[in-house]
Amino acid sequence: MDLTNFAYLTEEHIKTHTAIRAGETKIGQKISFGVLDQVSSKQFVILGIEESIGVKGNLGVAGTHTAWKGFLSKFLNVQHTHKLNAEQIHLLGTFNFNSLFESCKTIAEYRTATEKVDDQVYPLIQDLVEKGHVPIIIGGSHANAFPILKGCSLAFNEPVSAINLDAHADFRALEGRHSGNPFSYAYNQQYLNQYRIIGLHENYNSQSMLDHMDEARVEFISWEDIYLRKAVGFNEILDQYIQQTSQNHCGIELDLDSIENTLSSAMGPSGFTATEARQYAYHCGQHANAAYLHLCEASTQLENGQQSATIGKLLSYLVTDFVKGALEKTNI
């Protein structure tokens, strides 16, 4: 396994980001971290991906490499209580592809570099899943859905399904790897089984891609169908898609550009609320046959200078909501 660009978390990292306060116990004071013992019983393993390569390969604005550090400082300061304790969670470390990013100048180079990211990410995901863990992947572009699905599929020896809360289907043409085509590549290489998307924005998904999705039997509901036409309720369609994918291991994808006014390369003024995104994470943790959780496309700072002080806290909420749901798991 090539972990050239991976760094395990150390005690120094944890202490640096954990604020100790008398009378309180933070997750950072209790959580296990770094190299994961092969016989560890930890159910959830959190890792970061610091890269903006897939975004640039899709003609987007870089910044997704900044999400992991924003998340880490907020997550480690979550209160350790009977509602959420650290005994089932392990913080592994992070991939950092900034040097690879800096070596790229053209679209073609970014797309070639995305394949190099794929080749490092999928073996680690495969290894974690084979050992019985549920990976939670934070940061980076949506390009990483492909190696995550590949790793899970190889571990389970069968294609994996996926439910995606997203404004964009990311099912673009097979034109070289980038953040706009992880699911089309995964489908083409038979790592992806059923693909279900909630919240597509009708203004920003092309007819040619929708036609390709129809051929691949991808199902989706648009944001407009839920909120303008009121053809179906948010909870209703989520339950429907969870039921449809219940016979397979299912990846839980959450692209933060689906949340209104959330800093990302494709941020917008309309979309799901942060509360709805939290409900999605919790409900999928509780009811779906979840193989992993992938939170992507968020940025604490974009290359154009835009910044957000709340991204880390939002990511932390989404992780803890998913974990709480999974630990309270029931069947529909």
UniProtKB/TrEMBL annotation:
The keyword rRNA processing does not apply. One of its GO terms (biological process) is putrescine biosynthetic process from arginine, via agmatine. Pfam families: Arginase. Keywords: Histidine metabolism, Hydrolase, Manganese, Metal-binding. The keyword Phosphoprotein does not apply. PANTHER family: ARGINASE/AGMATINASE, FORMIMIDOYLGLUTAMASE. This is Formimidoylglutamase. It comes from Marivirga atlantica. The lineage of its organism: Bacteria, Pseudomonadati, Bacteroidota, Cytophagia, Cytophagales.
